[in-house]
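Next comes this protein.

***
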Amino acid sequence: MNMPLSTRARSQRGRSALMILALILVALNLRLAITSAAALLTLLTQAGALSPATVVLIPAIPTAVFAIAGVSTARIAARWGAERTVAVGMAMLVAGLIIRAIPLPAVVVLGTVIATGGLAVVNILLPAVVRAHFGRNISAITTVYSTSMSLGAATAAATAVPIAQAIGSPSLGLAAWALPALAGLAVWVLVMPLARPKTVRETPLDSGNAPGAAEAPKTQPLPAGTWLLAGFFSIQSLLSYVIMGWLPSIATGAGLTAERAGLLLGIAMAVGVPATVLIVPLTRGPHRMRAGFALVGAASITGVLGFLIAPAAIPEVWAAFLGLGMCAFPLALALIASLGSNAAEAARVSTTVQSIGYTVATLGPLGAGAMHQATGTWTPVLVLLLVGATAQVAVGVVLTGVVWRQRSA
């Protein structure tokens, strides 16, 4: 007996709602491992869980691993299915976070590599998952999961130090963030379609293809604007990961307490929650898009200038501007998901853009830490961030014209 149309519609809506919930719970965890570690760097070093050498590595590991893992992620997902591969990535995240409970520098580094390897897989595939399951609502769903990422990052940054102090160990406080990751994994496995595709043509990455599109040659050119988008993504990633990795240390270097410094990073991340709702819709028109690029660039410049000129005056305000500037990331995500003619091509764009972007961005956190250790001051780092924020605006303006010509073709 066939199910009535209204019943099937309600069932489909309920299924979609559960899938969005799973997406939100996964997205909440995509910055927890990074911002919690950044907030605890000082305490971990004081406790001996990190050495002077490894403390420089921790903020640089995420971008380096993201770049390496990005090379093969789309290929693996084409064989296993995007949703199944995301589940594997979340399992890696949980394992890496648990490993970081052991207060030895080499083990903390190993756990960070494993955890961020999982993050890399999920980061690259979520735009393709959104394209496959929510193709008619890309901007709205991208806003939802980008906002969730900001919320999770803000929560971890603001509460990592108090939680570690309550537990009595920065290492255990660092590992405590495995619990929300485990919850996200459990819901994802229960809700998302994880069946392994029988052939590459049946993978979720190919859903929405026109007939015969699965046989398109692998050498098919990437959509126009992909390389400029990779340049924009590189600059915004470099700026964002220096801020996420070193803002608490910059603040403590200016005389603030570790708890207040962690709260500043929490503020920067929290600003992304409402700001993302306003920023992502700016991809819907060329004039809006230019305004979006200008807005996030100007915010980054203002925040960096604040920490450069008067870091202890009103640091919460400077942190809020930096948070608005980091909304360049959801802006880039929306563009990644919208480029190309189908979900498979969106995955290729995502892999290319994020692999290049994170490779370049690795120089940011690593170089910032090394420069600070060499000079004993954060001033050169902040000056270079100003240069990067200015370049980001210029690339964004050029990218706008290319993207809209490609959409109009």
Q: What stands out?
A: The mean pLDDT is 82. Residues 138-167 form the longest helix (30 residues). DSSP finds 16 helices and no strands in the chain.
